[in-house]
């Protein structure tokens, strides 16, 4: 084997006609590294098979490319390819050509694959090269770490990959309880579009706007909201002496990066390890400030209605819903990492707007319910108590 697998797998067979497959079996534990958009590796893999942004998925794609008909690929990798937004073309490449036969999920996050702050769960999967569209059941197993008890079940293909999902997400879970959760999710009444909401990642990227940032509020500057301003369902602004800036000077250029005054739901993109729930959401209440515009920094996602605020009760109901135990369990089905991508939030189903208004109507000014009370009030309005094991009455 030469030093670089990417070069070897994508260049023409050498002078001596060195074998480039096809292979009956490819077993790999590929390296994990982000690939820059214009990197040599990325261009070579895109030319040979598919666009992909990580070395491990590039190795897998080339592994598939080199397989003989009915050949088998076995790989141990991070789980991120199953739902990460940047892996969509790779997922399509994989799912179009391979029948996934078995998947084993290591539920503990392994620092071996740590990508800066984002801890990854790992999977081992086995798949077979096929030219047909027939897809049978998949054996899914899971364990917490090496040597732990293994749970295993057979999953219908449609439960793991929804044929109508343009993102080609691969849902990996070994629990019957998970199947019930999938049904609960499917039964939620609305898509985000149907409740007339959108979610965007905060448009102000602080290091690109350095000259406009201000530590404290001042004339001509508007609030800049970071995760540090989020506490107990509300926005506490300004935070004097905070590590981050509190404000941004409004200029003709950055005006479009800010939102008009109104009610918004703000979600942290990264939850800290101490936080029990993946999604931490708060309501931006326009009473916080008289400023006409608000900047949301890139470390938060923002729910809005066509670039403006939401009706007050919808925002409050959405905030309760996003902080509920049920939502936490739904989002963990999709995601094996601690990042909450706007795409993940877009692909969830939601309570109806009427339900959100009713939930939001129970908001207590200057108070934030404990988790049990919050779950209880969400369940009462959704009538989903059987699906929430930690629920109240
Ligand atoms: C996760 S480790 C797996 C090591 C070994 N295969 C095993 O299973 O124990 C990934 C390996 O890929 C090697 N590697 C990194 N980039 C490579 C490349 N471009 N071509 C071939 N191997 C590479 C690394 O040196 C590393 O040994």
Strand content: 15-25%
- Total number of strands: 17
Q: Report the structural category.
A: alpha+beta
Task: Provide the succession of SSEs.
Answer: HEHHEHEEEEHHEEEEEEEEEEEHHHHH
| Side-by-side strand order of the widest sheet | 1-2-4-3-5-6
CATH superfamily of the largest domain: DNA methylase specificity domains
Low-pLDDT segments: 111-118, 385-393
Question: The CATH topology of the largest domain, please?
Answer: Adenine-n6-DNA-methyltransferase TaqI, Chain A, domain 2
Domain module count: 2
Which second-level CATH architecture of the largest domain applies?
Alpha-Beta Complex
In DSSP terms (H or I, runs of 4 or more residues), the helix count works out at 11
Shape: globular
Q: Tell me, what is the CATH class of the largest domain?
A: Alpha Beta
**Integer average pLDDT:** 88
